[in-house]
Amino acid sequence: MSSLMPDCTSKCRSLQHALDVISVVTRGSEGQIKAFLSSYCYNAATIKDAFGRNVIHLASSCGKKGVLDWLAETKGVDLLAKDKESGWTALHRSIFYGYIDCVLSLLKHGVSLYVQDKEGLSALDLVMKDRPIHVVFKKTGRKSSILNFIL
After folding, report:
1. Structural domains in the chain plus CATH codes
2. Is 50 exposed, middle or buried (0-12, 13-18, 19+ CB in 10 A)?
3. Which of 23-27, 32-36, 86-90, 139-143 is predicted with the least confidence, judged by mean pLDDT?
């Protein structure tokens, strides 16, 4: 921990720290992000901005699969955390932005497809809602066909 930030403790909720973390995640490489998160703030993996977004939301929005895996495996972040704005989880964001590798990673780490946002939509509902008209999903005996495609 840098001696420049004596106010950063395990209870840190600094909005400036959250904004700095978001900036690095959106612009940095995987190595830069990991180094920054490991040394900048005690709560870098869980700190939230004014919209309730944390590092897991931004990593999934930007397609940073390596960072997602690292956070899930070493930092123990809450992969089901919802933002304040829409109630979206990291999975909602990965699906919305089309980062299928992040979707698969989150599913492998146990994230449910059925967690709902503030409008009552699950991440799977987002796939159904934004599909082209000519694409039809059929229910199968076990799971919906999109689930069979993803898994």
Report:
1. 15-150 (1.25.40.20)
2. exposed
3. 139-143
52: pLDDT strictly greater than 90: yes
The model's pTM is 0.81
In which band, very low, low, confident or very high, does the pLDDT at 128 lie, cut at 50, 70 and 90?
Answer: confident
Helix (H, G, I), strand (E, B) or coil at 144: strand
Residue range 19-47: average pLDDT? 92
CB 89 within 8 A of CB 80: yes
Residue of 67, 134, 140, 130 lying closest to 151 (CA atoms): 140
3-class DSSP state for residue 139? strand
DSSP state of 131: S
Nearest to 96 by CA among 73, 124, 133, 68: 124
65-85: b or e for each residue (b if 16 or more CB lie within 10 Å)? bbbbbbbbeeeebebebbbee
CA distances from 25 to 34, 52, 117, 131, 132 (A): 9, 15, 23, 29, 31
